[in-house]
From TrEMBL:
Tagged with keyword Zinc-finger: no
Gene Ontology molecular function: phosphoribosylglycinamide formyltransferase activity
Protein keywords: Purine biosynthesis, Transferase
Its biological purpose: Catalyzes the transfer of a formyl group from 10-formyltetrahydrofolate to 5-phospho-ribosyl-glycinamide (GAR), producing 5-phospho-ribosyl-N-formylglycinamide (FGAR) and tetrahydrofolate.
Domain of life, source organism: Bacteria
GO cellular component, one term: cytosol
Similarity comment: family membership: Belongs to the GART family.
Annotated EC: 2.1.2.2
Site entry (Raises pKa of active site His), positions: 145
Protein's recorded name: Phosphoribosylglycinamide formyltransferase
CDD domains on file: FMT_core_GART
Active site (record annotation): 109
Gene this chain is encoded by: purN
Length: 217
């Protein structure tokens, strides 16, 4: 069993999907702590209700990002995790922080990276008229929403989609791929080596792309 710390800023549905997978025995991992950068994050209540220790490191209390990063690292290291999982964590982390957790810090982003890093990915995908959109799980590097990609899931963009409909279709896939990526790491099959993702003995198609049936979901 590896120990996980999950960092959130808001709703926490990806965190909840990881908790559910762990509780169902699908993840050889224990979620030892959930940390939010906002005291009002809804996900904090979800975690507490399930008996997971929570902490708040309120970014507004720090004048400099480096001070925030240091306080956050202290809170994380207090839980001694093997893997740090960013799940809707909305602060940009500095290079020193990212290097400190090199190879054991992962993120989920709601686009098929490297397309649409940053915010409002679904709105931008609609504005660009892309026909395929999705989500990516990646190891974190000092560049925002960039880094070796572990797994992606694609969904179709439908003519009648608005931002909410597209976001909901992608979110269903986020809740599938994140537990899968964490499971691979927990099983010792997934690592970052020389800046590249290594997955031991992948089943056919497993690591490359989950392409759910190209139909409305
Ligand atoms: C997700 O779409 C995630 O990919 C993005 O922010 C959203 C967070 O949702 N980074 P939740 O807090 O996990 O519900």
């Amino acid at each position: 069993m590896i120990a996980l710390v999950i960092l959130i800023s808001g709703r926490g549905s990806n965190m909840a999907s990881l908790l559910a997978a762990a509780n169902a025995g699908e993840l050889p991992a224990r979620i030892v702590g959930v940390i939010s950068c906002r005291p009002d994050a809804q996900g904090l209540q979800t975690a507490a209700l399930r008996g997971v220790p929570t902490r708040v490191v309120d970014y507004r209390l720090f004048a400099e990002r480096q001070q925030f990063d240091a306080a956050l690292a202290e809170a994380i290291d207090g839980f001694a995790p093997d893997l740090v999982v960013l799940a809707g964590f909305m602060r940009i982390l500095g290079g020193d922080f990212v290097r400190h957790y090199g190879g054991r810090l992962i993120n989920i982003h709601p686009s098929l990276l490297p397309a649409f890093p940053g915010l409002h990915t679904h709105r931008r995908a609609l504005a660009e008229g892309v026909r395929i959109h999705g989500c990516s799980v990646h190891f974190v590097t000092p560049d925002l929403d960039h880094g070796p990609i572990i797994i992606q899931a694609a969904v179709p963009v439908l003519d009648q989609d608005d931002e909410a409909a597209l976001a909901a279709r992608v979110l269903v896939q986020e809740h599938r791929v994140y537990p899968l990526a964490v499971r691979w790491f927990a099983e010792g099959r997934l690592r970052l080596q020389d800046g590249r993702v290594q997955l031991d003995s992948p089943q056919s198609g497993e690591a490359v792309l989950i392409a759910p049936q190209l139909a409305a979901n």
